[in-house]
Amino acid sequence: xxxxxxxxxxxxxxxxxxxxxxxxxxxxxxxxxxxxxxxxxxxxxxxxxxxxxxxxxxxxxxxxxxxxxxxxxxxxxxxxxxxxxxxxxxxxxxxxxxxxxxxxxxxxxxxxxxxxxxxxxxxxxxxxxxxxxxxxxxxxxxxxxxxxxxxxxxxxxxxxxxxxxxxxxxxxxxxxxxxxxxxxxxxxxxxxxxxxxxxxxxxxxxxxxxxxxxxxxxxxxxxxxxxxxxxxxxxxxxxxxxxxxxxxxxxxxx
Amino acid sequence: xxxxxxxxxxxxxxxxxxxxxxxxxxxxxxxxxxxxxxxxxxxxxxxxxxxxxxxxxxxxxxxxxxxxxxxxxxxxxxxxxxxxxxxxxxxxxxxxxxxxxxxxxxxxxxxxxxxxxxxxxxxxxxxxxxxxxxxxxxxxxxxxxxxxxxxxxxxxxxxxxxxxxxxxxxxxxxxxxxxxxxxxxxxxxxxxxxxxxxxxxxxxxxxxxxxxxxxxxxxxxxxxxxxxxxxxxxxxxxxxxxxxxxxxxxxxxxxxxxxxxxxxxxxxxxxxxxxxxxxxxxxxxxxxxxxxxxxxxxxxxxxxxxxxxxxxxxxxxxxxxxxxxxxxxxxxxxxxxxxxxxxxxxxxxxxxxxxxxxxxxxxxxxxxxx
Lengths: 254, 370
Prior knowledge:
Strand content of chain A: 15-25%
Helix content of chain A: 25-40%
Largest sheet of chain B: 4 strands, mixed
CATH superfamily of chain A: P-loop containing nucleotide triphosphate hydrolases
Strand order of the largest sheet of chain B: 1-2-3-4
Order of helices and strands of chain B: EEHEHEHHHHHHHHHHH
Radius of gyration of chain B: 35 Å
Low-confidence stretches of chain B: none
Largest sheet of chain A: 6 strands, mixed
Structural class of chain A: alpha/beta
Number of strands of chain B: 4
CATH topology of chain A: Rossmann fold
Number of helices of chain B: 13
CATH architecture of chain A: 3-Layer(aba) Sandwich
Low-confidence stretches of chain A: none
Oligomer: heterodimer
Distance between the termini of chain B: 82 Å
Strand content of chain B: 5-15%
Mean pLDDT of chain B: 86
């Protein structure tokens, strides 16, 4: 498959009289790690929701893995969904399932494998994200914040998706766990070869993880380039975003 | 059948070689796995050729590893690309065998019974402690050492009282209609239809009005209290109140409890009115008893005492509904399931207690000859 992982063209989104996206286009090739950034209220979450088919665009089209979400049949959409994984900001683990059941959930849904193999693969994915077997039969409420994030990403990658979305993967983690999580993302991307799209505010993550950064502002993508060139971008919004003290601190730490 | 489906076959020229082909990815591997688990593979296999595999992921790697290990000896992999090798190494490095990791469940029935008894006793104690705490809070309120958020108090009155009027009115009206119908059917046989006035009056005022209203309010308001407090607890709003030095009981429970103590007796009066109205309308249809006759006989034969006996129970009902609802709300521990379970328990226990208390009241009244 040579089609781009995500192809957004001329996307417009309006809430009442408020235009969130005006003519937004973005093409993300396969096997890249891309971060979507921008100031608060610039429509990052709305964009993610539209890509995930949770919200319909006002106009324009979104193609996931070559499949136009608005026109595709139920069957085609199901196939696309089987090939995408999502990690929500708060984890969104099912509270009535154990960790293992949570991680095994997509496999049960999308494959017809035996229960034993599904459980073994789920355990394998848990150890891949650095969790031990002991947590497998715990419930989400018994886990720490960092563990919830790890379980959430294990659930997102369990069915080997081609495309994975991460909403604020390192938010709410202590700096050490956040750094570990960045390493985990790089490791997973390298070993499982998938396209990773993340929304993040964590400057450390931005410096370390993504290949390219899509900068949202004024309802469209202002820039889509690697961080080093993005820093040189003369657009005032970009300069403002990167001029804060935190960014400079993160830079000097490098 | 999809030609790209994962499969493996034995080489026709070289019967010691297995050929794997197709997409060895998650969704396509169910058949392969069944095949492996059937264990009917010939014993002379010495190598697996994986060069014809198109797509490969970790599920495929895991299955391939299972295939490799289903023979009791070393099997050589032939034609593995770097990609396949890397994934296989990853899987072998991090694999886990699934075993029954769950902690052993207690099976001895005596121990189980004991455990249940102890937890139930614990519930009863903590409910008692909760009620005690509420009383202390009410006392503090009356001695003006604390204050109650009046906004919530009035909101409670509107939500639990005003907004419940239509449903309580309609349901008790229908109960009155049904009761009157059944009673007059029987009494008419003896030509004693006129006595249905007393029967309806007594039944509605003493029992049905307050009881039906209590059951509606338990289902409507008790469940809402539990769900609201439960969601607040999960959302850490309850903890936030504590950090401001506010007692959640004072701030959240008291307005709800006192609000319901105000509205519920009024709802019971409303229910009485509509119950009798339903009975009166049905009596006209069944017995051709005019409204004037009905009401004048009602005034003569149904003592005011009956009305007060019915109403005296209502503050107790209101207290039980609000206390159980709030208590169950605070018992919510984790996640959405817990909210559901506690809400169910709240309604069931409130109705259970209401009926028990109603029975106790009946016993006391008959003992006192009322």
